[in-house]
Amino acid sequence: MNEMPIFNVPRPSLEQRLSPAYLYSRTTLFDPFVSSTHERFWDPSDPRYIDFSTAFDLKSPLLPLNHFPELNQWPDQIPLQEQIDYVNLQAYRMLSGFYYGEQAALLVCLKEAEELADPCAVEYAINQAREESRHQHGFQRYIQARFGEPAPLSQPYRELILRLLDTDTTQRKFVGIQLVIEGLGLATLGYVARATTDPVLRRLVTLVMADEAQHHRTGRMLAKREFPLFSSAQAQEIAEEAWACFNTMQMLYLHAGPLQALCARLQLAHGPTGSLLAPGARNPYFEAIFRRNAATIEDCGVITQVMRPLYSNWLSVAPDDALEDCQDQQLAEQVTQDLRAYNAEQRQRHALAPSAGAGG
Predict the structure, then answer these.
(1) pTM score, two decimals?
(2) Yes or no: is domain 39-46+76-340 CATH 1.20.1260.10?
(3) Whether the predicted pLDDT of 97 surpasses 70
């Protein structure tokens, strides 16, 4: 039942999807992933899971100041509150990126559900769409509480999202969202969970990690299963899409624009001249995020020999990368266990509660 390819098969018509033969063609490939979703359920609108009303003073940094070495060039020229505002602006940009990324993942999953032939894969895509909607709602609630509204969607990110939505090639959508954007997102969530000083933000990103770890695990499994089945031309097309997404996200994470604006406002000399922060002036945890994602893309066989030179800055693994992978996995597993226990307790209480109108 699980030998049927997921990609590279004709898209069934609506009439074919009503046929018993189509429904009986279902594999069991995604059943373990779908059946586990109820265990890690959480509701952004329920304060028993997360309470967005808890205040945080933005005169304090959301992330440690020493994680932003680009400020070190002017140790005595940038007032402390300006440094804090800069760090919080970077956090705000990152959180807004999550907001749009979750919406993009939701829309891509809905498109994939229309395109995939395996009924089990369709169910998984719809289920993931539901979880992405939950994440988008969570980030919307957090941004509203701390900043009012998300930052505008940047043009490069908009173009990336629309390109993935518009392509007729399902595997291009898959590699862009499941391997690149969600891979980078999962590592970033882990970084924020370890680094942030805001308990509400820490709670939010760990809840999202419980789902995203499963999504990324599914993506790696499917990539290793499916990509060897592609022709060399198809493999190159997918590798090019992976790099296009990776490179766009690199430009967004390491963009020098906020630092250039700070230098202009404070009239600081020797500010960045290029569009990207210099290698020695980057958040080292952001750099680790890209190294780890490049390693995942390579492990899944999506970096062809033609594309390998483009990743040259990111394929050298640092000693702490494996440790951070392990820490992220442990964190996702812990919050999943906590949600499993809490949700089981709630179901048990509901089952034991007396029915309405029962006599006493």
Answers:
(1) 0.92
(2) yes
(3) yes
